Amino acid sequence: MKKLFLLLLFTGFFVSSYSQPSSKADNIRVILESTGVIDQSMAVMKNSLNSYLSSGSKMQQSVCVDISKELNVNSLIEMIIPIYDKYYSEKEIRRLAEFYVNPTAKEKMYVSPKLTAESIVAGQEWAKTGAKKIMLKLQNEKFEEDLKQ
After folding, report:
1. Are 53 and 64 a contacting pair, CB within 8 Å?
2. Helix or strand or coil: residue 113?
3. For residue range 28-77, what is the model confidence (pLDDT) as tens digits?
4. Spatial separation of the C-alpha atoms in residues 108 and 95, rounded to whole Å
5. Are the C-beta atoms of 69 and 16 separated by less than 8 Å?
6. Contact indicator for 89, 28 with CB cutoff of 8 Å
């Protein structure tokens, strides 16, 4: 009986230390952290405060200190959690959390801005080439129409 108890205790400890976050909110926190939302939000806040300080007096510096204390990242996370909760089921949130912690997803997030930028350039080139072809066609049709008259 003692061995069974110890085995269950050990198994429970092992499983709990390696399990997924227990609640939907915890999984949303995992998503926010894994996708860089937290870091980006903090960077935006710091950049905004630094811009404000660059023009600054001591009074402005003390205001920035107060702002940075008041606007901590946890309060932002707590405001974002209900938004995710509104649009995703618990199962979807769990799957997203599992996805975003894997290395392939991290690579995708790293590469996506580059892919987007290059795709925009390719789309612009495609549109420009298409527009030239259309303009030539319209000019040729106009020329042919003028010849018929």
Report:
1. yes
2. helix
3. 999 999 988 888 888 888 887 777 777 766 667 777 777 777 777 888 89
4. 16
5. no
6. no
Residues in the chain: 149
Centre a 10 Å sphere on the Cβ of residue 31 and count the other Cβ atoms it contains: 21
Integer angstrom CA distances of residue 90 from 23, 29, 120, 125: 8, 13, 35, 42
The DSSP annotation for 11-46 comes to HHHHHHHTSPPSSHHHHHHHHHHHTTHHHHHHHHHH
Tokens of 32: 């926010």
Prediction pTM value: 0.59
**Contact in structure between 24 and 90 (CB atoms under 8 Å):** yes
Q: Tell me the one-letter amino acid at 90.
A: E
